[in-house]
Amino acid sequence: MVTTTVHLMRHGEVHNPEGILYGRIPGYHLSERGHEMARRVAAHLTDPETERDIAAVIASPLQRAQETATPIAQAAGVELLTDGRLIEAGNHFEGMTFGVGDGSLRHPEHWRFLWNPFRPSWGEPYRAQVARMHEVVHAARDAYRGREVVLVSHQLPVWVTRLAFEGRRLWHDPRKRECTLASVTAFRFDGDELAGIHYTEPAADLLPGAATTAGA
Asked: In the chain, is it the N or the C terminus that has fewer CB atoms within a 10 Å radius of its CB?
């Protein structure tokens, strides 16, 4: 049975001093810490002792994902590819600060977007995210059978993809996502069947003090 591994990675820390939910807004780049996170993951995924065979690195078109994926592709000696299906989830609160104090939730005109947390009503449906992400994962598995592929995406799409593969409900508490900055969730397939999921944090020592934004 041919074994193929698809690594779903979340990008590194983003330079975001305003603390807004940047979503799909172009131009948000990695911080210095974020670049170091990307280098750490590149070293982890291409460590000769692990004998990995990375055939492709594919990233979301957003700058933070492209910058995270670049050192991995360089270390693996492959061309960096882009797939729009790996993009961040759409969100009504994009470009705003999110919260009650000085955030967008203090304004009643936004409350109508919060009526259904199960869909969710404030952005791209969870099922839609899973559908596009599964397409990319399955396409990568089929195109690079017997090898390994790295897909660089964003926290929410990565997390709901894992939930779906594990047969769990898609609605969840965002505070309980196991998907830190620069983390890697690896899906191992035997033939077409999912055989295991393995989660790692190659840049765990850089996480204390790192800035995170919901939906990042």
From this structure: N
Per-residue pLDDT tens over the stretch 161-187: 999 999 999 988 888 999 999 999 999
Q: What is the pLDDT of residue 95?
A: 66
pLDDT for 93:
60
pLDDT at residue 113, as a whole number: 45
Rounded-to-integer distance, Cα 95 and Cα 64, Å = 16
Which of 91-95, 112-116, 210-214 bottoms out in mean pLDDT, i.e. has the lowest? 112-116
Domains annotated for the chain, with CATH where assigned, are 3-206 (3.40.50.1240)
Q: Which long-range contacts (CB under 8 A, 24 or more apart) does 167-176 make?
A: 170/126, 170/127, 170/130, 171/117, 171/118, 171/120, 171/126, 174/214
